[in-house]
Amino acid sequence: AGSRTLAQQQQQDPTKLNGGSCLAMAGKDCVALVLDSRFGSGTSLVNVQSRHVLLPPPSQRHSDEQKLFVVALQGLQSDVLSLEQELKMAMQNKYSRSTIGKVSVLDKNGDDDDGNAHMSPRSLSAFTSRLLYGRKQAPYYVEPMIIGLEPYRVTHKNEKGLLTSAVKYRPYLCSMDLLGSLQEQPSLDDVAVANAVTSAKHEGNPQPAATFCCMGAAVPSLYGTAQAFWKPNMDESELARTCAQAFLAACERDCLSGYGARMYLLTGTRGVSVYDIMTRND
């Protein structure tokens, strides 16, 4: 009876047919994304492979400018591949190959101060949302997740009393449904409030809160473990450990997830780092 119920649920929600789960967490100037490697058809295991993600160009992953984002696509595998190719082609048509994945520094209003010549994680989220909504009559059964680091300027007074500015990074998390409905952390309202406080006090930009987001077959378990494990202002090592523990705790209780996992850790100092995580294979 339990298997029939699970099969009926998967028929009603094609995004869960091939299984798989995804979890993202934000820390202090860093963000982590974990995806499992199970590819199945219902309760049957078909293959074990790394999930498809879109990364910045290799020249941008470890550069000093740290123009970073990661796009994870979760759902029906055929639609995942179709959306991945459509997104790549659309980005190449809209932006030259040399600027794909570049993230410009935000000005005090939260806008790109180079005329939007480069694509930020927030702009990429809006672009992906538009692609999905454009197919609302025949939607892709895919749930994208976009994480990244948004550069912003902080202004403070030095020892001589002069105002100086520096670039820091704000974690950005965004998930959306198959119609492109956005759930952003932080939202534009949060950024506007932070920028208003900065303009009033001429001090460091307070970082709007970004916590975690998850999607996939193990969402009921992921929300619980992520809420229990997450805490604010984690450094990169603590964030990687916490995100991995929360993901493992949830996936070990879900038969449609697991079989290994891969973590993408984005930091303002080292760029994109990739780690493989061992999980249960049963």
Rg calc: 19 Å
Number of strands: 12
Number of H- or I-type helical stretches = 7
Question: Under the CATH scheme, which class?
Answer: Alpha Beta
Total separate domains? 1
Helix content: 25-40%
Mean pLDDT metric: 77
Largest sheet: 5 strands, antiparallel
- CA-CA gap between termini: 21 Å
CATH superfamily: Aminohydrolase, N-terminal nucleophile (Ntn) domain
State the order of secondary-structure elements, H for helix, E for strand: HEEEEEHEHHEEEHEHHEE
Which architecture name does CATH use? 4-Layer Sandwich
How are the strands of the largest sheet arranged? 10-1-2-11-12
Q: In terms of per-residue confidence, which ranges show pLDDT below 50 for 5 or more consecutive residues?
A: 61-65, 97-117, 200-204
Shape: globular
| Beta-strand proportion | 25-35%
- Please name the CATH topology: Glutamine Phosphoribosylpyrophosphate, subunit 1, domain 1
The secondary structure category is alpha+beta
Organism: Entomoneis paludosa
Protein name: Proteasome subunit beta
